[in-house]
Amino acid sequence: MNMTEMTETTPRKAGGWGRILAWALVLGLLTVVAIQLSKSMQGSVGAGQKAPEFTLTLFGGGEIGPAEMAGKVVVVNFWASWCKPCEEEAEELQDAWEYYEPRGDVLFLGVDYVDTETDALKYLEKWGITYPNGPDLGTRISQAFRITGVPETYIIDRQGTLAYIKIGPFTTLDEILAAVERALAE
Asked: Exposure string (b/e) for 149-171, b if CB count within 10 Å is 16 or more?
């Protein structure tokens, strides 16, 4: 068998570019998965760290974003209507809001986590909650704070730093007031 005969009977190998492109896509996908896995393993954000910037779309319309939070102590409470421990702190959070609201230098924000709007609005009505609340659309806010569940509360000082973090429900109004007062003193 001569060289011409061998060439005609040997199947042609697939182009090198296709193989390179396939490997590039696989490596890109693995990189994205590794980054997401790394983020999920970092745990919650910690006190003393810069708070994540976010904009909360409110039930009933409107938004509260970085401009409205600037220079204020911000209490960010993650909750859900299906969360029984959230009910344990609902009245105390509302009482704390009513205490600080006239001052104008403390802002309470409720972030409804993985819930339906109908159930969330029923929850707010049941507990008489009047401070600004809205859904965590696409779980973007909870991902930014890297929450581990609900309820969780993050208190941000006037400089935008996380001053206090509460995992689980507050047990008393005094506990909430003490945490806010520490942030106001900073």
From this structure: ebbbbbbbbbeeebbbbbeebbe
